[in-house]
């Protein structure tokens, strides 16, 4: 597993300096054993994310699955349009061809309206919770859920869509505990 984890949300061997992360990823991948390695940059940027994508692309071989998680993905997209192939070639390759080489990509964002259209259009599965008007229109159009219904989604519920579905469906994922503002019970989706 290869992680872009600026907020330290996941357990992993983590590195703040890109050069240290690249060396560690290369060494872990060469070992042939499983690994969880994360780049936790103190100042995330689209250029640094492109470098992370280059390292991810380098370890994809098509012989086994490589899981990648990009937290706060919308913050490292240069715009909501297409990924600039000249400027962010590896970012583009990971989204458009990574699956052919065993990439299982998960991206999260609090601002889905910032996510590149290449990522949104190439996603095989989308979970969408309540969001602002502009985001609801964009994501709702992609998963064929009315923006008003998306905006009205209750905390703990998400719209689930995957490429094999005719329609997205609303699913209960967790029950909020309002006394502490944290999750009380997590229900794992199938």
Beta-strand content: 15-25%
The largest β sheet comes out as:
5 strands, parallel
Structural class, by secondary structure, is alpha/beta
CATH class of the largest domain: Alpha Beta
Count helical runs. 6
The total domain count is 2
| Rg, Cα atoms, Å | 17 Å
Please give the CATH architecture of the largest domain: 3-Layer(aba) Sandwich
Bulk shape: globular
| Helix proportion | 25-40%
Tell me the CATH superfamily of the largest domain.
P-loop containing nucleotide triphosphate hydrolases
Order of strands across the biggest sheet? 2-3-1-4-5
Low-confidence stretches: 184-188
Q: Could you say what the CATH topology of the largest domain is called? A: Rossmann fold
Q: Tell me the span between the first and last alpha carbons.
A: 21 Å
Average pLDDT across residues? 91
- How many β-strand runs? 10
**SSE run:** EEHEHEHEHEHHEEEE
Can you offer a commentary on this structure?
- The protein is α/β, with parallel strands linked by helices.
- The protein contains 6 helices and 10 strands; from the N terminus they run ββαβαβαβαβααββββ.
- The protein has helices spanning 18-31, 46-59, 89-97, 117-122, 133-143, 147-151; strands spanning 2-4, 13-15, 37-39, 66-70, 103-107, 125-128, 157-162, 169-172, 174-177, 182-186.
- The strands form 3 sheets. A 5-stranded parallel sheet has the order 2-3-1-4-5, covered by helices on one side. A 3-stranded antiparallel sheet has the order 6-7-8, with no helix packed on it.
- Helix 1 packs parallel to helix 2.
- The chain is globular.
